[in-house]
Amino acid sequence: MSNVIKFSFKQIIPLTRYSYVHTKYTCLLNIKGYSSKAATTNSNVFDNFTDWETLSKTKKISKAMRAYLERAKEHDEFMKKQQFEFSIGKRHLANMMGEDPETFTQKDVDRAIEYLFPSGIYDPAARPLMKPPEEVFPARKAAEFDEAGRPHHFLFYTGKPNFFKLLYDAAENIQLLYKFEDKVIRKKETANPNQNLDLSNTVWFTKDQLELHLVEKLTDLEYENFKLVMERLISLPYSYQFKDFIEKFRKTLTSQKFALEIPKPNFDEEGRAYVTTYECLRKKARGDVTIRSPGTGKITINGKDITYFEDTQSREQVIFPLIFTGMQNKVDVECNIEGGGPSGQSGAIRWGIAWGLRSFVDKNMLEAMQVAGLLTRDHRRRERKKPGQPGARKKPTWKRR
């Protein structure tokens, strides 16, 4: 009778000093020639198999994972508390405004905050706001390592795995485009001009936007490297193949909406094209601006020339849109303005000129005007005086006695 035992184990466990059983394999253990004592020892190993399997299933959690789980638990509790307080505050705000709390949207919240807490502060970050906690508090990274402490990402030890993975993917896409271009050249084919990548209406993420997207802090040099490698990618003739990858890191210019609203010029008795912009507002000033083309650069303000404004700053405000677009000697400007002071009137005329020049400039100049802020209306007003103090911000002088 052959002393052969057939068995199958799920784990790797030691049988004797020199023999092991491998996972998922059925092995034959020949104990022929062993002493009865050795056979008894091996039988005890089989009897204790359940204990070995139980021990193998208990995974030890590393200190890094334990610390991450504790921080994640604290963060979840904090966000839950903030979400609860935000929902209560939103209901109170809806009741104050006399609206239904169930249908009170975030747009209604912003409008109510602006109504209840008027502010003339220009910087939006300094104005009072009430946003959901997900927008106020930055997002947290997910665990980058397993329970044993081994990192998931192969670029974990770079310190910024998401950023370097982005550069790695971009470089890999560049190499793939090089290979594809070589293949096309060998076949003596040409690129299809209809498949070119059109990015004229978008720009790259800013440094802050890219940090929010990657959930990592970047230096100025790293951001410049990001733009450099992405510009290299889009400069290749077949970059349209990775359009989805490129558009993930670009944002659309808001000037596109103005292209749909640009009025067509009318023509006067002399055959000159003209466009009139009404409701040119700035502080308490209100007026209208008419631009005629072709012209000689003549500017008329309430029947007077540019000397209507005595200070140099107001004059520079009026002619800045004309200089920026290169139209200072190509159009004539007629303005009617009332109310406010020199600063408000010059600001209203500046916006009216820029708004009317849209009908006489090309698409690229329109985008440049939008980026420069010429097409954005300035809603700032003089901040009102507060009760109990001499001015809007000024406080009484503190005296000890």
From TrEMBL:
**Which keywords annotate this record?**
Mitochondrion, Ribonucleoprotein, Ribosomal protein, Transit peptide
- Tell me yes or no: is Protein biosynthesis among this UniProt entry's keywords: no
Return the InterPro entries for the record. Answer: Ribosomal_uS9
Q: Which stretches of sequence are listed as region Disordered?
A: 377-401
Q: Where is the composition biased (Basic residues)?
A: 378-401
User: Where is it mainly found?
Assistant: mitochondrion
Q: Which GO terms describe its biological process?
A: translation
Keyword Phosphoprotein listed: no
| Location relative to the cell | Mitochondrion
Q: Which PANTHER family match?
A: RIBOSOMAL PROTEIN S9 (PTHR21569), SMALL RIBOSOMAL SUBUNIT PROTEIN US9M (PTHR21569:SF1)
Protein name (Swiss-Prot/TrEMBL): Small ribosomal subunit protein uS9m
Naturally occurring in which organism (per UniProt): Parnassius apollo
